[in-house]
Backbone:
């Protein structure tokens, strides 16, 4: 999984850039300053920014809140906090796929499609959840590598979001949001983002997060629709339990 430990913000003139490092904040700061200098020089020479990175072409700037180890003792899953304050499960082995449901695509038809696809694949089993905007599918029968071509085939067959597919490759993991989006809990976006520029911003975020966690109690992130009839890989059992507990998948609460 690709979550650098250190991030820094660099500036040059009116241009700024974030860069990362797994070694030190000093290295991240140097790389950020160099990137800002390049941006300023490029704009001065061409009048435009021709090499902008687009989501999700770089590691995500998210703090790791919790690490979960597999049977080997190595970190297999981490929980991070995204840019708008939600906790997110990131897994190097558990294949999650989110499928958005536009107005013309009915939920029942999408569920039936996922079931029929699983039945056509030897040994495959889906755990299907309803989300606010569609479906979340979790393959329970086996472990997967995000770089394996079979994952792209699965995403293509199910119509998974293209940005999510790219993100899995960039981050070297699959992702599933665990807590509701703030605006679905009548909460504003966070007042600051990690890494915090100073203690006052960190304190402001902590105050926001306490109110957000309280607001989350009235919402579920997803709702279990079908657990399938196939097997569950032993390594995935504790992860499923954690996911369902944190998302309140069996609570019957309104989705957020």
Residues:
């Amino acid at each position: 999984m690709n979550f650098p430990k250190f991030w820094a913000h660099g500036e040059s003139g009116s241009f700024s850039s974030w860069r990362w490092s797994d070694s030190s904040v000093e290295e991240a700061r140097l790389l950020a300053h160099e990137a800002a200098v390049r941006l300023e020089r490029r704009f001065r020479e061409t009048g435009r920014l021709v090499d902008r990175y687009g989501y999700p072409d770089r590691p995500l700037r998210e703090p790791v809140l919790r690490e979960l180890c597999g049977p080997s003792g190595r970190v297999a899953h981490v929980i991070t906090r995204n840019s708008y304050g939600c906790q997110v499960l990131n897994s190097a082995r558990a294949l999650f796929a989110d499928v958005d449901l536009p107005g013309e695509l009915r939920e029942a038809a999408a569920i039936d499609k996922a079931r029929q696809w699983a039945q056509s694949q030897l040994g495959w089993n889906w755990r299907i959840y309803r989300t606010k905007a569609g479906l979340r599918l979790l393959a329970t029968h086996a472990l997967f590598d995000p770089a394996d071509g079979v994952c792209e085939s699965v995403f293509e067959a199910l119509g998974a979001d293209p940005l999510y597919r790219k993100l899995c490759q960039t981050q070297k993991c699959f992702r599933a949001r665990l807590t509701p989006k703030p605006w679905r809990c009548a909460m504003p976006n966070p007042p600051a983002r990690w890494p915090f520029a100073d203690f006052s911003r960190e304190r402001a975020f902590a105050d926001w997060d306490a109110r957000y966690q309280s607001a989350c109690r009235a919402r579920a992130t997803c709702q279990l629709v079908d657990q399938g009839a196939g097997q569950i890989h032993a390594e995935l059992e504790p992860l499923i339990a954690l996911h369902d507990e944190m998302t309140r998948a069996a609570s019957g609460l309104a989705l957020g």
Summary: Residues 51-55 have pLDDT under 50 and may be disordered. Helices lie at 25-46, 107-119, 149-158, 162-171, 199-216, 237-247. Residues 25-46 form the longest helix (22 residues). Residues 64-182+217-247 form one domain.
